[in-house]
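Good morning,

Attaching, inline, the backbone tokens for the sequence recovery test we're adding to the shared suite. The designed sequence is right after.
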């Protein structure tokens, strides 16, 4: 009986060691992937004539004066609108998507695609002055947050399950963070 107990203890120790090794290795690969996204977006070539890098700084009170409560919650407090409720999720029209808070050009309709995730999805941003990324470890998840590069407002998150024949990235963006301006003359 004692031998059986000893074997069980040994088995438990081996399982525990294997599990901790697996967790560590998966954490490392996830961190490497995140770092690749963060560094690749920094070295992107400019894609559109969007070179204005002037930062927009306002106090919370100033933002509250120009944003609705719902917009403020998402843009300035990193909230998330409920999936399949945003007004741009299924929009396919040609045009540009600007920051709802400051008007910065963020995305174009050329890179918008149907991901089925419930929020507007883009496989690329509109150029060097559009967005910036930072690590987000909130809610027990390791994600990369997407922010407006000019005003620092929260837009959404970026994931690596985008179209493989494009960038492989999915910018998952809240509709309420965007302001769409249709341009039917835009050439695809
Ligand atoms: Fe902005």
């Amino acid at each position: 009986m004692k031998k059986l107990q000893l074997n069980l203890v040994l088995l438990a120790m081996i399982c525990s060691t294997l599990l901790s090794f697996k967790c560590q290795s998966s954490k490392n690969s996830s961190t490497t992937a995140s770092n690749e996204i963060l560094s690749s977006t920094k070295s992107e070539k400019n894609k559109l004539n969007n070179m204005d890098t002037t930062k927009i700084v306002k106090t919370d009170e100033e933002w509250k004066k120009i944003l609705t409560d719902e917009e403020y919650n998402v843009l300035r407090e990193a909230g998330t609108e409920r999936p399949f409720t945003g007004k741009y999720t299924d929009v396919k029209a040609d045009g540009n998507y600007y920051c709802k808070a400051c008007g910065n050009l963020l995305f174009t309709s050329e890179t918008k695609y149907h991901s089925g995730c419930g929020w507007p999805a883009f496989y690329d941003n509109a150029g060097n002055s559009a967005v910036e990324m930072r690590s987000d470890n909130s809610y027990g998840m390791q994600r990369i947050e997407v922010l407006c590069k000019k005003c620092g407002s929260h837009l959404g998150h970026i994931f690596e399950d985008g179209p493989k024949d494009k960038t492989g990235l999915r910018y998952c963006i809240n509709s309420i963070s965007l302001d769409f301006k249709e341009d039917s003359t835009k050439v695809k």
